[in-house]
From TrEMBL:
The lineage of its organism: Archaea, Methanobacteriati, Methanobacteriota, Stenosarchaea group, Halobacteria. Its cofactor is Mo-molybdopterin. The keyword Oxidoreductase applies. Pfam families: Mo-co_dimer, Oxidored_molyb. CDD domains: SO_family_Moco_dimer (cd02110). Residues 1-45, 372-394 are annotated as: Disordered. Keywords: Metal-binding, Molybdenum, Oxidoreductase. This is Sulfite oxidase. Residues 286-380 form the Moybdenum cofactor oxidoreductase dimerisation domain. It comes from Halogeometricum salsisoli. Residues 1-18 have a biased composition (Basic and acidic residues). Residues 59-224 form the Oxidoreductase molybdopterin-binding domain.
Length: 419
């Protein structure tokens, strides 16, 4: 047995205790299934979020999987269907790593008023990790998969019990070929049970819901997972998490419109192209930022020069962060922040810094980021009665499940500057 094997059995040890009790940097929102977010803004200042501080979002219980026995089935529009062992996934293909600031689309749901359904995540369902694994491109080529742009790759989680909906997502072929990996390592360590051991899909730049954990089947298809066949395959619903959950559904709609395929996979564009797509899918992440220091509630005593350093983090989806501005008066006036530290790639967190000449008194410090297509974070979340489907003016659309909230004002730090 190699040292790695020892590490792995340790890392994948099934836990009886809730994940937030095992990992010191997490705060539990629920325990069965486990859902936990990072417990402070300072945790996000790290260039790589340690697993002790990386949020966990589970629809079902974390499964207990024997990696020696586990296989990933490759099915559908391929020359040769196959059951890939973990050894084959690791050893028969190239290895790639990507740094990805992964955000749960429910992050920021707590700032919706009236409340949106689900766990009330504030700012902590986001984490920046280096994920290592096998590029899907190599596996698909090797098995003669049909790879034209109209195809979708449907990826299924293996943890659902016989009476539970299967966690299943469809990824457009172009994205799958571009940079998706079957990941088996996180931050250079073997994957841990709750993050997907022994193998998860990693979709860089996209909301966490796309990165299916505990992958059991990868199927090449003509469409997304949709239709009756998939609403009851082996008596279980495979469509829920693609077609019903993880959609932007405003108050006036009963439920999401289901589609077999969509042309645009840019979340922001879908939210605008209301003619073509009625309820946006949560695909690539929306540009967002967070002030990490000073902390909310801080009392500051700057030195003689009155200067305070404001620091924070920014991230985005397929379109990189281009610019960050900081306001110390709640968004009335803005100054340009500078990026600091390494750029770990287009999907990684960017750290920023702003030097503030602070006057004594109460202040609200906020940041807003803009992506390289010129799209800026809105200020607030709309009221449900406004019926918005996309970001309009300075308002983020209230939606039934509270997804995608990238409004900056609710994330403000209220600070007191002393003389
Ligand atoms: N099989 C499976 N994969 C899953 C989920 C799940 O419940 N089951 N949750 C998804 C969601 S909503 C998110 S945000 C990410 C969270 O990944 P993490 O727990 O490693 O942070 O995993 C995704 N993959
Ligand atoms: Mo999520």
């Amino acid at each position: 047995m190699s040292p790695r094997d020892t590490d792995e059995s340790e890392a994948s040890r099934p836990r009886d205790e809730p994940v937030a009790e095992t990992y010191s940097g997490l705060e539990a929102l629920s325990t069965d299934p486990d859902n936990a977010q990072t417990d402070s803004r300072e945790n996000l200042e790290s260039y790589l979020t340690p697993r002790e501080e990386h949020y966990v979002r589970n629809h079902h219980r974390t499964p207990e999987i024997d990696a020696e026995e586990w296989t990933v089935s490759l099915t559908g529009l391929v020359n040769s269907e196959a059951d890939l062992s973990m050894a084959a996934i690791r050893n028969d293909y190239p290895t790639e790593s990507v740094v990805h600031m992964m955000e749960c689309s429910g992050n920021g749901r707590a700032y919706f008023s009236p409340d949106a359904e689900g766990d009330q995540w504030t700012f902590g369902a986001v984490g920046n990790a280096v994920w290592t694994g096998t590029p899907l491109r190599a596996v698909l080529e090797d098995h003669g998969a049909e790879r034209d742009e109209e195809k979708w790759l449907t990826v299924m989680g293996g943890e659902a019990k016989a009476d539970e909906d299967v966690f299943c997502r469809s990824i457009p072929m172009a994205k799958a070929l571009d940079d998706c990996i079957l990941a088996y390592e996180m931050n250079g360590d073997p994957m841990t049970a709750e993050h997907g051991y022994p193998v998860r899909l990693l979709v860089p730049g996209w909301f966490g819901n796309n990165s299916v954990k505990w992958v059991e089947e990868v199927r090449v298809m003509d469409s997304m997972v949709a239709g009756e066949e998939w609403e009851s395959r082996d008596g279980r619903d495979y469509t829920e998490y693609q077609q019903s959950s993880y959609r932007i559904v405003p108050a006036q709609d009963d439920e999401a419109e289901r589609y077999a395929s969509v042309d645009s996979v840019d979340t922001h564009d879908q939210m605008r192209e209301t003619e073509e797509i009625r309820n946006a899918y949560l695909f690539d992440q929306l540009v967002k930022s967070l002030v990490t220091s000073p902390a909310d509630g801080a009392v500051l005593s700057p030195g003689a020069d009155g200067r305070v350093e404001v620091t924070g983090v920014a991230w985005s989806g397929d379109d990189a962060v281009e610019r960050v501005e900081v306001s110390t008066d709640g968004g009335e006036t803005w100054g340009e922040a500078e990026f600091v530290g390494p750029d770990l790639g287009r999907y990684a967190v960017r750290k920023f810094r702003y030097v503030w000449d602070a006057d004594p008194g109460e202040h609200t410090v906020v940041a807003r980021a803009t992506d390289d297509r010129g799209r800026t974070q809105p200020a607030t979340v709309s009221d449900p009665e406004e019926g918005l489907r996309g970001i309009e003016g300075d308002r983020y659309p209230w939606n039934q499940k509270g997804y995608g909230n990238n409004a900056y004002r609710p994330l403000g730090s209220s600070v007191t500057v002393e003389r």
